[in-house]
Design goal:
Helix content: 10-25%
Strand content: 35-45%
CATH architecture: Beta Barrel
Shape: globular
Number of domains: 1
Largest sheet: 18 strands, antiparallel, barrel
Radius of gyration: 26 Å
CATH topology: Porin
Distance between the termini: 49 Å
CATH superfamily: Porin
Length: 538
């Protein structure tokens, strides 16, 4: 064999080896955790790191960072990285891979299934609530070229155990109480979670248009600066089931300084130009400290301003946030009530009926504030246990839990945002010892205004590469309040409801016929919950 032939053979072999290596690395980038992040909004590994949490990675990055992980880049809005190799051969291979990826279409999804059993303070064990929510997400991810991306995610929610039970231990005589408590009766529901297109202007301003996830702030359990989601995330849920918001987002990154500027047009529910909302956020990085400043406004919705900070000092990660709301149209109530003491409220005992006074706080500036900290403590050879806590002050909440039944009846009860003072503590132990695929989390949430508490232990383990199995148990204790909520709402005649609605004391939920009256319901307090389930990516 001549020297030229040997040289050509060596070049061909080296090219094939480099091509296979680059393809393998790229395939590894699209790991199961990345797909799981894009579907459920956070990696379940990180969710298990707090179980009630607002996601560890979300504390310092917006939702597009997780979408970026799906596509193999560090920042969803940054241009793709240049060729990794300095040689002409490396440049050619990188160009071939980029050309192949630029016209790719990725199809995948995730399945989440859970089974929960609640133990109530009274009743028959065989009749206690059993729920089995199932979520199926299927996504299409297309990249016509390196600067254009289209993403769609459809969600199917199936809860076969939904049959008129509120899921909160309530025994309902009809669907009215279920709707008041916010629990859907329909076991099958189809939703559009995300549908957006992403592109850039001169590789400088990055635009995302359509239904998308975008969370602002630094909270783990509470989110005072999450202005774009009207529905607050439930930190007790294993998966964030909220769907995206219809936005037009402009992102200007200053990469050299680690700064980011966002301008957002909120099209969610907008039916005319005057109802389009606006929001903005600026993020600054100074040494190891991140600052964020946010604002949002929309017709018939509160004017909101917020600021947050996160930093590290020694072993400690510290975070804080504050916000102000003005023109809040949510109804507020004050005063005592005795309507839960009646077996039936009718015209014959109208003289004895006492109802809370309904009033407005639209002219007030209502503050919310959050502080939190986390510390990682090494133990054994290479293990770490993380301890953290958070305090939340909510000036829009109530000091007295006696008002909760009336809030529920008026559709004004907001779990984890109805009290005035809250606190949370947690301990996280990922991959202890030889249990490299397991995570343990112990968390306690408390409503300090009514002195009710919930403690929960979570365990999760990854099995069969693509599946995560989890189990949890929780108990509630303390005084009668939010976490130990049990109540009995009496039957109310139609004439009393009509009179209360006419006087502004009662806001009837949509679809409720006042003339039919309210049949009443009873809800026993939940004292413990056990559950388990799995998530599978494909």
């Amino acid at each position: 064999m001549t020297r030229t032939a040997r040289t050509r053979l060596l070049f061909v072999g080296l090219s094939a080896a480099l091509t296979m290596w680059a393809a393998s690395v790229q395939a590894q980038d699209l790991s199961i955790e990345d797909r799981e992040a894009a579907i459920f909004g956070e990696p379940l590994d990180d969710f298990d790191a707090s179980e009630f949490d607002a996601s560890e990675e979300e504390d310092s990055a917006a939702i597009e960072d997780r979408e970026a992980a799906l596509f193999g880049s560090a920042d969803a809005d940054e241009p793709p990285a240049g060729p990794p190799a300095a040689t002409a051969l490396g440049d050619a291979l990188a160009e071939r891979l980029a050309a192949r990826d630029a016209h790719s279409l990725d199809i995948g999804g995730s399945l989440f299934s859970q089974l929960n059993y609640s133990i109530l303070e009274r009743g028959n064990l065989a009749e206690f609530p059993l729920t089995q929510p199932n979520l199926l997400d299927v996504y299409l991810d297309a990249r016509p070229n390196s600067r254009l991306r289209v993403y769609a995610d459809a969600r199917l929610t199936y809860t076969p155990t939904n049959s008129g039970d509120t899921g909160l231990g309530a025994t309902s005589t009809n669907a009215t109480s279920a709707s008041i408590l916010g629990a859907p009766d329909d076991p099958l529901r189809a939703e559009l979670d995300q549908l957006w297109i992403k592109f850039d202007i001169a590789n400088t301003v990055y635009i995302t248009a359509g239904r998308q996830h975008l969370r602002w702030g630094v909270g783990r359990f509470w989110y005072p600066n999450d202005f774009l989601f009207e529905q607050r995330r439930d930190p007790l849920a294993l998966v964030d089931v909220r769907t995206g918001v219809d936005l037009l987002k402009f992102h200007l990154p200053v990469e050299s300084m680690g700064w980011n500027f966002y301008a957002v047009a909120n099209l969610d529910g907008a039916h005319s130009p005057e109802t389009v909302g606006g929001a903005g956020r600026a993020e600054f990085l100074l040494a190891t400290t991140e600052f964020g400043f946010s604002a949002a406004a929309q017709k018939d919705k509160p004017l909101q301003f917020g600021a947050d900070i996160s930093t590290g000092i020694g072993w400690f990660d510290l975070r804080a946030a504050a916000s102000l709301m003005h023109n809040l149209e949510t109804p507020f109530f004050r005063g005592d009530s005795n309507f839960t003491d009646f077996d039936t409220i009718g015209i014959e005992n109208i003289g004895d009926l006492e109802l809370p006074e309904r009033y407005t706080r639209q002219d007030e500036w209502i503050p919310r504030a959050l502080i939190g900290a986390e510390v990682g403590i090494p133990f054994l050879d290479d293990d770490t246990i993380y301890l953290g806590g958070e305090y939340f002050f909510n000036a829009a909440g109530y000091d007295n839990s006696d008002i909760y039944p009336w809030l529920i009846l008026n559709g004004a009860f907001r779990p984890l945002y109805s009290g005035r003072h809250y606190a949370a503590l947690y301990a996280l132990m990922p991959s202890p010892g030889d249990w490299n695929d397991s995570t343990f989390t112990l968390s306690t949430l408390g409503n300090l205004s009514d002195l009710s508490f919930l403690s929960r232990l979570d365990y999760s383990v990854r099995v069969l590469t693509h599946m995560r199995v989890f189990a949890f148990s929780s108990v509630t204790y303390g005084k009668s309040g939010e976490f130990t909520l049990g109540l009995r709402v009496p039957a109310i005649s139609g004439d009393i409801l009509a009179a209360a609605a006419a006087s502004g004391q009662f806001g009837a939920p949509p679809g409720m016929a006042l003339e039919d009256g309210f049949p009443g319901f009873s809800m026993a307090a939940t004292r413990a919950t056990i559950g388990g389930g799995l998530s599978l990516n494909f």
